[in-house]
Every structure is written in structure tokens, then in C-alpha cells.
Model the fold of this input.
Amino acid sequence: MPMHLYLKLFVLIILLSPRLTAQTQTFESYYNQGREKLKSRDFKRAVVDFTIALEIDERAEAYVGRAQAKQYLEDHTGALQDYTEALRLSPHNAVIYNSLGNIYDSMRNPQDAILSYDKSLSLDSTYTNAYYNRAIAFFNVKNYQRAKEDFLKVVQLSPEDSEAWIGLGLSQYELDEKEQACTSFLKAQKLNISMAKEYLGKYCQ
Done:
């Protein structure tokens, strides 16, 4: 074979090698790269990695990862779309419905947030994050009775959750249940949450 043909083949291999490497990258490799970039707070590059992973294989976890990155970038509409796509692929996932509710809450859409938390809890009735988030949503729309019920559920399932005790106390106070509210603030204080002392001083003197 002539020398110039060897040189041409060598150059061609050099030029193609990055493309060949890219083609051998798997869904898992791009997905894991995206997760690592999320951890390092490199959110824009995380979006890129999750997008490439989805081009290789459309999976719910990659939509969730990209939604999380978009959420940090305050692209709430994009995150909403990705969580919706994730649910299309994994329609019985309580965690994704809870995350969808958080996006609606960030978009100041409490009604859709509550519906998403409802769906999450219909799939997993012990999911404390969804009870807590729904309690916050109810509190924000001044439905203090429902907020109280959800905070009570959280502290029943997770009695060491000091923030839930604070939320319960505030809900009870708004319902004119001052004695119960102060008891909740005291329980929060015993769990060493600093804001409990503030609320005890403000509401329980």
C-alpha cells in the first residue's frame, strides 16, 4: 500500500476517534455525568448531559434529573414539562408527583400543587415529604385545618421532624388553639430548633 494512503487512513482515524468515542457512550454514562454535575452545581452542563442521555434512551430518571437541574436554574416551565414527561413513563411514582407539586408551588399555583401532592399520597400514604409539602400549601392558602391535619400526620410518622412541629404549632395558633400550639413549639424546642424559642416568646407569653 502506498505511503500516502497510510497517512490518509491515519488522519481519518484521528478525525473519527472522538465521534467513535461519543457513539460508544451509553445512557448510563451520560446520566451519571449529569448526576455528578448536579452535585457540583454545574446545572447548565447537567442539562446537556441529561439531554444527550434522553436522546440515547428515553427514561424517566433522566427527565427527573434534567427537571432538577432546570429547577435550580429557575426554569420552572421547563422543569414542569420534564416532570410531566417523567410521569408519562413512570405514572405510579409518588416521588415524581411530589416534585411536580413543588414546581407548581414555585410557580405560585397552590391548587395544582395540592392536587399533585394528593396524587403522590394516593400512591404512598406514608410519604412524609408529600404530607409536609401539602401542609405548607394548605397553610399558604389559609386552610389551617387541613394544614394542621397534614402536619399532625408528619409528626406521627416522623416525630423528630422539628420543622413539622413548628408548622403544626403555627397552624394550631391560627385556629385559636393556643395551648396546643405552645405544646408543639415546646416539642420543637426540645429538638433544638432555634426558631422555636422565637415562637414561644411571641405566642406563648
Q: What stands out?
A: Residues 151 and 168 are 5 Å apart (CA to CA). The radius of gyration is 25 Å.
